[in-house]
Design brief:
Number of strands: 9
Order of helices and strands: EHHEHEEEHEHEHEHE
Distance between the termini: 22 Å
């Protein structure tokens, strides 16, 4: 049987909304789910809804898919919503670029993801029960991945995710990055290959 379900922070934050989730006690109670919940951060929507998103150091400004208003999602907002959802494993808000992106945007997104991890960790209202996974970014650039790995590991996350893949790269490129990351990640911490 299923041992974990995924909750989408962007969509659950819009509907039913953070207030409703807090009122009912999170998705565990809303769905009578006794096992684990993994919540994403809303970061993937930076790629899937790129035409509706503006990325800044503060966060991501989305044009809402529900009525056209503006929605600012900051790292702190993402974690606050994930706390309300009741995620057992929460993904940090990261600055995601398409896996085939090259040039300065790759470094910008990787460094911002590190800074945003610090903000996410500081915002977690329930760190004993709701752990944050740092997400390793850097597209297909091994040097960028190495920097991100070193910085994320130094922060002592409870687990790590390999992000920014499955966006059109070849299987060889995909497995090269996965191997690089898994070799460097602490062997005693959980790993999640996203995508």
């Amino acid at each position: 049987g299923c041992e974990i379900i995924l909750g989408n922070t962007y969509h659950l934050g819009l509907r039913p909304g953070e207030d409703v989730l807090r009122e009912v006690g999170g998705v565990h109670k809303l769905q009578d789910w006794k096992a684990n919940i993994l919540t994403d951060s809303g970061g993937f929507q930076m790629v899937s809804l790129l035409k509706l998103a503006t990325i800044t150091e503060e966060g991501v400004i989305f044009t809402s898919t529900h009525g056209g208003g503006k929605l600012l999602l900051k790292p702190e907002d993402s974690i606050r919503i994930q706390n309300a959802i009741g995620g057992d494993i929460m993904m940090q808000l990261d600055d995601v670029v398409h896996s085939l992106t090259v040039g300065p945007r790759v470094e910008e997104s990787m460094l911002r993801s590190i800074r945003w991890l610090d903000r996410c960790m500081a915002a977690n209202a329930n760190p004993e029960k709701q752990c944050i996974f740092g997400i390793i970014q850097g597209a297909l650039d091994p040097a960028m991945r190495d920097i991100c790995l070193r910085e994320m590991i130094a922060r002592g996350c409870k687990g790590y995710a390999i992000g920014g893949l499955s966006g059109g790269e070849s299987k060889d490129e995909f497995w090269r990055i996965v191997a690089q990351c898994t070799k460097a990640l602490p062997p005693n911490k959980p790993r999640y290959c996203m995508g």
